[in-house]
Amino acid sequence: MSDFGLVDAIESGIVKIPRLPVLDTTGRPDPKYFKLWKAINENLEPGERLPGKSGRPKPEVVYREAEGALQQIASQWKERWEQMQAATPGQERVPPVLILVCDNTDIAEVFYRKISGETEMETVTEADVAEVLGEEEEGNENGNGVPKKAKSAKRKTRTVYGRGAIFPELFSNTPDVKRTIRIDTKLLAEAESDDPKKKKQDAAEELRQVVATVGKPGQPGEHVRCVVSVSMLTEGWDANNVTHILGIRAFGSQLLCEQVVGRGLRRMDYVPDPNTGLLTEEYVDVYGIPFSVIPFKGRPVKAPAPDDRPKNHVRALAERKAMEMRFPVVEGYAFALRKNLIRCDIGQLEPLIIEPNREPTATFVRPTVGYQEGSPATHAAPFQFVEQDREEYYRETHLQTIEFQIARMIVDQLTGAAGPPMDRRRRVLALQSRHQLFPQVFRYVDEYVRRKVNFQNCHPCELGLEKYVQRMVERLRDGIVPDDSEGEAPLQPILNRYKPIGTTAEVDFKTTRPCHVTVKSHIDQVVLDNLVWEASAAFRLEASSAVTFYARNDHLGLTISYEYMGIDHAYEPDFLVRLANGVTVVLEIKGFEDDQTKAKHNAAKRWVEAVNNWGQLGRWAFHVCRNPQLLEKELDYLVRELPAAV
C-alpha cells in the first residue's frame, strides 16, 4: 500500500486532471476566474461590505461579482450534460455534477435560491384583503383624530418553486424533485430544530446520503445536479461524477485547495485503454480555486520598515452600555403610491455600458499538473488551451426575459416587497398595487434598453448578469417618481436582510493613529484623522451640555449610498450624536464643499427622511458643521429647534 499526495496522483493519472483558467478576454495577468475571491474583494465600496470587524462582502454583492463565472461554468456543465444524454444504449449515462463551495451560509443561501428557484413568498388570504379594505372604507383615524395603530399579524409564508437564474430547466427544484441541494451547518441546525428527537449526526448522515448518491437511480440523490456547500465537502465525500467546481471563498492554504478540489478528482472509470494500457484522461473544470505554491516572502530590501509603534485599542466598553448607539443598515428606499401612477424621463438617466474589458466573456482553461508559482499563463504545459464561454447561456436566454426580470425587481423595490417584514395592511396594499405598476415599469425598462444601453459589440444577453441588472434597476428605480397631483409619497428604507441594525457594541480595532480618550461615548477613544478639525469637534462634543453621548463613525459601518457621475459611492458621515432632546444627529464636519460633497449631503438628507418615516429607532436629523468652533452653539440650536424624540 502506498500513500500518494494529490499532485503525485494527478501526474500518475489515477485521478481526474483539474483544468484551471489561464487566460481570459480581459487580458489581465491572472484571469479573473482563477483567483475569483480576490477579484470579488478588490474594488468593493465600504457600503458593499457588512458592518462589523470582519468586513465581509454582502452576499448579494458576492453573487453579482461571481455570476459571470457561475454562468460560464454552468454552460460547460450543460455541454457535458447533453453529451451524457446523447449516449447510446449500453454507454454510461452518469449525469455530471456541479459543486459550489461558498464562504459562509448566507452566501450559500443566496446562490442556492438563485440556482434552485426556491423563494419564500408571503401569503395574503381573501379574508386579509376584505379586512384591510374594510379598514380603508371606515377610515384610518379614531374619533379623536389620532391615527389607528396598524394591526399586526404573524407573517405567513410558503415555499414557491419558480424558475432559477441558471438554466432553470436543468437546475430548478420542484416540490417533488430536488435538482439543487444545499449542505452546510445552518441547514443542519434547521433540520435538527424541525425534529427535536433527531440527533444532529442523523441529520448530517441523511444529507450525506443524498450527496453521496448523486445521479444514482433509485438512491436519495438520484436527481441532484448541483451541490451548494460551505465547508462540509472538504473531506470524506467520494462521489465520482463531479465534473465542475466553483470556489466562492478565500483559499489561504494549499491544503484547503487540495481538500476542495479533491472532492472532484475521483475517476469515473478505472479500466485501462486496451491499446495503450493506460487510463484515459478525465477532467474536472475548476474555477476560483488557485492551485499554487505559497512561498515564504520576506520584506523587500528597499521597502519601508513596518509600523511598529504601539497601537491604540479602540473598543466599546461594557460599563457604558447605556451609551450604545444603534442605526439601520439601509440598502435602498421604497415609497408608498396612492394611485399607482408613475413617470420616468429616460432621456435624463445615465447610460449603461457593458464592460467586456472587466467581465470576461470567454476564458481559456488548460489541464494543470504539479505545483506552480505565479500567473498560470506563464507556465509551459503539454496541453492545449480550451476555450470556455457563455454560448449555452445566450442560447437559453432571451432579452425580453431579462427585461421582465428587471421590471419585476424594480416593482419589488417600489412596493417594499424586497425589504423587511411589514404589517398586514401594508402587505395587502403592496400586493394589490403590483399589477398596476408592472406594465408601466416594463415600458420604461424596454425604452431604456433601446436608448441607453451600450452593448459594445457584446451579446445582448450579457445584460442579464447581476452586475448590469443591478445598475439598471438602481438607475430606473431612482428615476421613477409618482405621477399624481398629491406630491411625492413618503420614502421608506429597505434594510439589509442579513444585518438590518448596526451598533457601537461591535466596534473593536487597533490603530497607530492618534486617539483621544472619551467620556460621553460607548467607545473608549475617538480616532483623530485630522488633528485640527476632528480633535476640535471631539472636544466640543464632550463639553456640550446639548450632547448626551456620541460615537465616531470609524469601524462602525454606517454608510449612506449615493450616485455621482454615474458611479455608486458610499458616504461615511463623521459622527453620530444623541442630543439632550433624544434626537440622533448624523453629524458631518466639513470645510470646503465641492459638487460631490453636495451629492453626499443630499443623500444623507434622503436617508434621514426615510429612517424617520420608518420610525423604529427614534427621530433623526442631519447637520453639517463648517466650523468646529461653532459646534456647541449649533448643537444648542438643534436641541431648541428640532422636535423632541418620542
> Which structural category fits the helices and strands?
alpha/beta
Largest sheet properties: 8 strands, mixed
The proportion of residues in beta strands is: 15-25%
Straight-line distance between termini: 76 Å
Task: Label the CATH architecture of the largest domain.
Answer: 3-Layer(aba) Sandwich
Summarize the structure.
This protein has 646 residues and is α/β, with parallel strands linked by helices.
Structure notes:
- The chain is an alpha/beta fold.
- The protein has three domains: 6-137 and 166-293, Rossmann fold; 313-331 and 499-641, Trna Endonuclease, Chain: A, domain 1 (3-Layer(aba) Sandwich), CATH 3.40.1350; 341-348 and 393-475, no CATH class.
- The chain is 33% helix and 20% strand.
- The protein has 16 helices and 28 strands.
- The strands form ten sheets. The chain has an eight-stranded mixed β-sheet, with helices on both faces. Strands 23-26-27-28 form a four-stranded mixed β-sheet. Strands 3-4 form a two-stranded antiparallel sheet.
- Strand 7 (242-248), helix 9 and strand 8 (283-287) form a beta-alpha-beta unit.
- Helix 3 packs across helix 4 (105-116) and helix 7 (185-194) packs across helix 8 (200-212).
- The longest helix is centred in the C-terminal third of the chain and has 29 residues, at 424-452.
